């Protein structure tokens, strides 16, 4: 919903030279999220709350431990310039623009903050948009970061290579912050920060938001081959066509343990949801390359699920 794609191929568009900075691209073995808290004006992640940053970074390893794509660096300079545009995580009705943002190899930049989100929404996440000008090679890098399937005509795209985006948490929610998500304690009446972080990062990675997702939606269902295999048939979507339908079930990765999928529209207060087999299959279908081997923590999750508390109420959550 918050994805803004402002693609311009105006060659020679020049922006402030002051935005150009020296940088070094550090080669990484895997994709990494670079969380940016500079727009967290409410201090949801600073001061006495700074420990929450570690929890968010730990949640992101759900993805970084399995994604094997190589995302090209975005290095503006000379005739090549661009502007990243994404929603302000501390004021989600407005956008922030960052001129000539440097994006390192294999890095996804995420602007994080908290807002009083409308209604029962407790999290909001999605990929950002951009404007770009320069050589065709530079434009292609901003559009697809080396993912060839992201450079096809919009209605044919099979891959997604985002520079990053935004992630907002509801400022008025009673959150449960768990330093060890592999163990599930009772947190009656609270909403699970880990579960929401994982869900919203899923949107940022293109689930419900990328062209390569839209291109696999047909008749109100998702038809990606891996998802169909995981689900035993086309996966019915919600009305917005940006989540699995409410209550869609899957399994914990590498197990037969049932759990409601992470990418359905809501989270039950007092419960945790891990990213499931179906959720990962969706990532695979929209173009992410994933390791076949599930993370070892899976075994901890199985035991942990026995401690799940009773669901008290459902709160809607949207990207
Ligand atoms: Ca725990
Ligand atoms: Ca890819
Ligand atoms: Zn959502």
List keywords for this structure.
single chain, 319 residues, alpha+beta, four-stranded mixed sheet, three-stranded antiparallel sheet, disordered N terminus, binds calcium ion, binds zinc ion
Description:
This protein is an alpha+beta fold and 319 residues long. It has one domain. It has 7 helices and 16 strands. The radius of gyration is 19 Å and the shape is globular. It binds calcium ion (2 copies) and zinc ion. The site of one calcium ion has 6 residues, from loops. One calcium ion binds next to loops.
In short:
The protein has helices at 51-64, 136-144, 193-204, 211-214, 225-231, 277-285, 297-305, and strands at residues 32-36, 81-88, 91-99, 107-115, 123-127, 129-133, 164-170, 175-176, 191-192, 217-218, 221-222, 235-236, 249-251, 258-260, 266-268, 314-316.
């Amino acid at each position: 919903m918050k994805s803004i794609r402002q693609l311009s191929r105006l060659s020679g568009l020049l922006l402030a030279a002051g935005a150009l900075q020296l940088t070094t691209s550090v080669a990484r073995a895997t994709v990494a999220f670079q969380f940016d808290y500079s727009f967290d004006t409410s201090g949801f992640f600073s001061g006495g709350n700074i420990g929450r940053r570690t929890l968010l970074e730990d949640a992101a390893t759900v993805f970084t431990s399995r994604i094997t794509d190589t995302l090209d660096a975005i290095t503006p300079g000379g005739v090549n310039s661009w502007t990243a545009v994404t929603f302000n995580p501390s004021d989600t009705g407005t956008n922030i623009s960052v001129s000539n943002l440097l994006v390192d190899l294999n890095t996804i930049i995420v602007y994080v903050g908290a807002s009083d989100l409308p209604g029962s929404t407790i999290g909001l996440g999605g990929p950002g948009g951009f404007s770009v000008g320069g050589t065709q090679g530079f434009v292609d890098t901003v559009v697809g970061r080396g993912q060839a399937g992201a450079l096809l005509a919009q209605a044919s795209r099979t891959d997604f290579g985002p520079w990053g985006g935004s992630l907002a948490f509801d400022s008025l929610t009673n959150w449960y912050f768990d330093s060890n998500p592999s163990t599930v304690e009772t947190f009656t009446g609270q909403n699970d920060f880990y579960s929401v972080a994982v869900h919203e990062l899923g949107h940022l990675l293109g689930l419900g938001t990328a062209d390569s997702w839209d291109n696999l939606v047909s008749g109100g269902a998702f038809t990606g081959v891996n998802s169909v295999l995981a689900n035993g048939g086309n996966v019915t979507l919600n009305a917005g066509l940006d989540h699995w339908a409410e209550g869609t079930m899957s399994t914990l990765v590498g197990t037969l343990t049932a759990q409601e999928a992470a990418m359905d529209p809501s989270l039950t207060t007092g419960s945790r949801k891990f990213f499931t087999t179906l959720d990962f299959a969706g990532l695979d279908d929209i173009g992410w390359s994933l390791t076949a081997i599930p993370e070892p923590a899976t075994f901890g999750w199985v035991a942990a699920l026995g401690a799940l508390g009773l669901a008290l109420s459902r709160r809607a959550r949207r990207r």
